[in-house]
């Protein structure tokens, strides 16, 4: 058959993955090797390795339920290495070894077991429902109050975020800073929570570069969501969700062009008296946008690992969360705006 040709497709070859993927803005799904050869990627090397390890463990009948602890600890080690944080050395002048603080990992074989485990913990009922919802939707959740990782299914994107949350929490000596209270919230508490979301998002991208980047355009698309879509995602009314999106867009503009405003927009000030759920959604949106900005700046070389490490260790309870937020925004967004303008 002289008219026929041969095409070769390579799947998940590690050498090609490391050569082409790495830390890029977008995930590479396929690569042309030469005229007759293409490579496709639908799993990262660490996902392949953990799959092999779990299957070998099953074949050896080491356990009836898969143990995800080694995989999660590997991710913790990787993020600590990226941030130049030693597990054993006494870098910060204290006697606490970082490795002694690694979280307990609870591997649960079913959602019923996850529900029973969370129900036994001394946590508010609303908090228990939130944690169970995370396990159902993402396969795992990290509980900072208990330094506990509950894992039902290992999904790398969610696991990377859980690990990043632990590392950020441990860097601050396991002290909660952004705890919502009843009544009007302070700006410091709000921006502390935004920074927590931002740094957790940044750390998750370091561990899992294929994580989709958050853009303002993505939030704009939420304006067209139906009432059923909004209520399925967050327990807020459509009207309240639209107000949150308006506030996010206004806040992002205010960050870069505050001098063009005579006073702080009333909408931004009004949100401090909003419900805890509304504030949490607003903080999450702003934080994830800043986390993406921070990661892009790192890729572009405008932010170093040393600077990222400093942010992870920043004690947000000292009363400078708002100043830290706006200083970080100027550091990562102003430089990008100048590049786009050029």
Instruction: Assign the structural class, choosing from mainly alpha, mainly beta, alpha/beta, alpha+beta, or little secondary structure.
Output: mainly alpha
Rg from Cα: 22 Å
Largest sheet: 3 strands, mixed
Count of beta strands: 6
Annotation field: number of helices? 14
Number of domains: 3
Uncertain segments of ≥5 residues (pLDDT<50)? none
- Tell me, what's the shape? globular
- Quaternary status of these chains? single chain
Percent of sequence in beta strands: 5-15%
Mean pLDDT across the residues is 83
Physical arrangement of strands within the biggest beta sheet: 1-3-2
- State the end-to-end CA separation: 55 Å
Residues in helices, as a percent range:
40-55%
Write the element-wise H/E pattern from the N-terminal end onward. Answer: EHEEHHEHHEEHHHHHHHHH
